TrEMBL record:
EC number in record: 3.1.3.12
The species this protein was found in: Dietzia timorensis
UniProt entry keywords in alphabetical sequence: Hydrolase, Magnesium, Metal-binding
UniProt KW Nucleotide-binding keyword: no
Identification of the protein by name: Trehalose 6-phosphate phosphatase
């Protein structure tokens, strides 16, 4: 249960964040800016949400993004915000942070070396077996075993990869059906927030979210990260969270965004 004090404490934190030289304001979509509905295709932004996002996006040195588990195309359709941020100043980030408008930053030397290593280890696993192969992506390598005729061979190759290159430090493994993806850069809402923090040199990142996947976003906020002492993580609704702040409802998210826009814009808070 959120108390009035929660909202007041949250406002105080937002007032501090509003003074950041550059500010990133990020919001999850479903359950944060948009009420849950039985047909997910009919989700829409809550009343006042778009106006609040637009008001923030119109401010100087202020970057606004939606970070959703949905893919960017769907997120654009249901939020009625274009996929190209140039039109609105609002950036859409899809698939839990893995789908950005721009190409991802080049790999660091360490990441590139690690990718080379895990790629060759996956190739060594796949190569002797007809039907197994490695798919190459910019920051990951994917072992495919679906075309192996015997299920036990599929399992064995996946196990070799899971017990081998997948356990290397800095490798993020995602298991799928007869596939294993090993990435050297984590795709998560947290990683997306850090990308925007680095890209803009933001002094503060404010992030609203309601669900388990948002916890990875909250986890990268806080005073123990570079330049993030003004960060504000805000959990929407009940449930355990690592976020420092909480609001009760989507309506309170909209009110908080309006408040932030008003304070940062220098006008009297609503
Ligand atoms: Mg959500």
């Amino acid at each position: 249960m959120t108390s009035e004090t929660d909202l007041l404490t949250t406002r105080a934190a937002l007032d501090r964040a509003a003074r950041a030289a550059h500010l990133v304001v990020a919001c999850d979509f479903d359950g944060t800016l948009s009420p849950f509905v039985s047909d997910p295709e009919t989700s829409r932004l809550a009343p006042g949400a778009r106006e609040a996002l637009d008001a923030l996006a119109a401010l100087p040195a202020t970057t606004v993004l939606l970070v959703s588990g949905r893919d960017r195309t769907t997120l654009s359709r249901i939020s009625e915000i274009p996929t190209e941020s140039a039109a609105t100043g609002i950036h859409l980030v899809g698939q839990h942070g893995s789908e950005l408008e721009s190409k991802p930053a080049a790999l660091t030397e360490v990441e590139a070396a690690l990718l080379t290593e895990i790629t060759s280890r996956l190739e060594a696993i796949a190569l002797p077996h007809e039907g197994a192969f490695v798919e190459y992506k910019p920051s990951s390598a994917v072992l495919h075993v679906r075309s192996l005729p015997r299920a036990e061979d599929q399992e064995r190759l996946l196990s070799l990869a899971l017990e081998g290159p997948a356990v290397r430090d800095g490798v993020f493994a995602t298991e799928g059906k007869a596939v294993l993806e090993l990435a050297v850069r984590e795709a998560s809402k947290g990683a997306a927030l850090q990308t925007f923090r680095e890209r803009t040199g933001a002094e503060s990142v404010v992030f609203f979210g309601d669900d388990v996947t948002d916890e990875k976003g909250f986890a990268v906020l806080g005073s123990d990260h570079d330049g993030s002492a003004l960060d504000v993580g805000i959990k929407v609704g009940d449930g355990p969270t690592v976020a420092g702040y909480r609001v009760a409802s989507i309506d309170e998210v909209v009110v908080s965004l309006r408040h932030l826009a008003a304070v940062r814009g220098g006008s009297k808070p609503a």
